[in-house]
User: What shape does this take?
Amino acid sequence: IPFLLNVLTHPEFKAGVVTTGFIDEHPELLQVTGKNWDFANVHQADQEKVMQVEKLLRYLANLAVNGHPKELGANPARLRTAPQPQVKPPRVLIPGKDDAPSAGRRLGGWRSLLLAEGPAAYAKAVREHKGLLVMDTTWRDAHQSLLATRMRTADLVKAGAATNAALSNAFSLEMWGGATFDVAMRFLHECPWQRLERLREEVPDVPFQMLLRGANAVGYTNYPDNLVYRFCKQAAASGIDVFRVFDSLNYLENLKLGIEAAGEAGGFVEAAICYTGDITDPSKGKYTLDYYLEYARQLAQLGVHSIAIKDMAGLLKPRAAALLVGAIRKELPDMLIHVHSHDTAGNSLASMLSAAEAGADVVDVAIDSMSGITSQPSLGALAAATAGSELDIGVRPQDLEPLNSYWEQVRSLYAPFESGQLSGSSDVYRNEIPGGQYTNLLFQASQLGLGDQWVEVKRKYAQANLLLGDIPKVTPSSKVVGDLAQLMVAQKLEPDQLIEQAESLAFPDSVVSYFQGGIGLPPGGFPEPLRSKVLKGRSLEDGRAAYDGRPGATMKPYDFDKELGLLQASYPSNKGERDALSYALYPQVFRDWQEHRAVYGEVEALPTEAFLHPMAVGDEVEFATEPGRSWIVKLVSVPKPDENGQTQVIMELNGERWFVPVTDNSVQSATAREKAGGSPGSVGSPMPGVVVDVKVKPGDTIREGEPLVVLSAMKMETVVAAPVAGRVAQLTVASGDDVQAGDLLVELQ
Assistant: This one.
């Protein structure tokens, strides 16, 4: 079709002076990438809109035949049996018409003050406010903790107007950053920047808050300083008001970069203390009250607008909350204090109340139907507990009813991503797994074939944490602990065995990078002798054994002009600065997302029930590609595939029959891969995964410890190194191959 549009719009064709050699004489007719056409019909004028609906049909047909890729982490049984209601947007409360708001409520929202007078004035006003304020995490941390961050933008947008009205007295809405950035592209096939900007249009009155991983921005590694600065500048321009900045190891040098970048962007800067251990238990070691107080003093000296206590796993017990907040309040009487926790053990509401009574200004909660377990405590419960008191949060439980009802219905659509945890679990005080990591770690364990050993994974998580030096656990440090724990379970290693075999084990890249100082320096330094053993034979690309100080300090500035030009050449429809930043932070994820769009179109147009749940024969789904342009799709038949695995899925589009070709991925060779033998040179895969890189070829002479193959599974990359020196006699895999644990990769002789 794009070729025909080129022909129809060519001046010679329009003038009627073409000959039989027209196409040969004009090879540019075959160039369709990035083309636009001057047609009155807007649906034929834009390259992205040509065949848009056809691409969505292809997505629905492929989903009906093949289901979702296992990397999505969805429970296949729940995908086909979960209820699929048509969820309507919640009712919007109208001040003056609906019930009167509670005392202490600021009509019109706090954002107007922030925009008019700036971050310092906002912090001062909140500090002087009589009553407790809340940050609602429903749009980020709540669904990250309960549903593996799989919430789609469309479902958030539906709740926008109602949220703006019901929570106008909130300090902020946490709705961006953290894992939501890469998951939007990686699994939801959406633009994270469009999410931010669309929600900003729906919610003009409540400040938006994001989670910034310090020098790691919204990634899992370090980036050039200028990239972090430019990211924060664009985030503020797109609608972020408050930046909660943290470093996963409480490494101040990394944190400073994020604070400075957010501040230069004009944002309200909230510096976070990552809480771990138990300050009420002297046996917990280095994480004492004095440790946290000293860190708070250092943050205050950096000129931040507020300090957050970020309790990632729900370890902050009520008595500890009162003790820590009270001490910081005494030390820093004018500093705004914000407290964050998770409800994994069931204690967090009591902890938030204790923190508020000790002097906290803001606490984190979630809408009732998205609260509890590994999420935050209930907003409605806190509203009821503080109603009429000096801590009244300015939100009445009945004002939240439309939102509670809405999110309860929406959550049922995402049942395939529920962890299965039906209650709180006090064993978090032993394993210390962060709430935001819990469901993702469970999915990772399942994909690695360890789902039936979840109890053992949790036990190994605690052991891995101690092996790494007993560190604060939040992305990316929590990923290091989780990756090491799964390695220990997969290879049945106890801590002493891991230390003994460390020089020859195929550690995940995240673990090697951690010991190289790739994410900074942990409190108390790196544990020995494990660090030295892990780093033996594993150096940085520049030959150094490890980083000296902040990793990003020695990185070359990111060349935006060069990369933007390359991006424009590869993806002419890119959105300029925003896509350039997405590509800079996640190059492979961005490329994969663009390839998905090229094949399946902008799947954001599909309702969640159709996007997530495969259609069955006879099912119908209705969606709109733009206002006033809607479509009804019916799945008529899914014939059996031919000998090549091809099937023609029969569908109806607004009553017109379509035949959509799909390759059935279940029709494949039954040939099993050879397993690794017992000899030292028979190198097998340490885990199920995908081969992402092959470092050797047959005939190569290999030294002990030299990289052979790079594997990836659920964002965990592992370099398989040579256990002995030798010659590559056999190479059984190529990039893109799926392998199972024990499959032969390389045979060395």
Observations:
- The CA atoms of residues 651 and 657 lie 6 Å apart.
- The radius of gyration is 27 Å.
- Residues 52-66 form the longest helix (15 residues).
- The first strand starts at residue 133 and ends at 136.
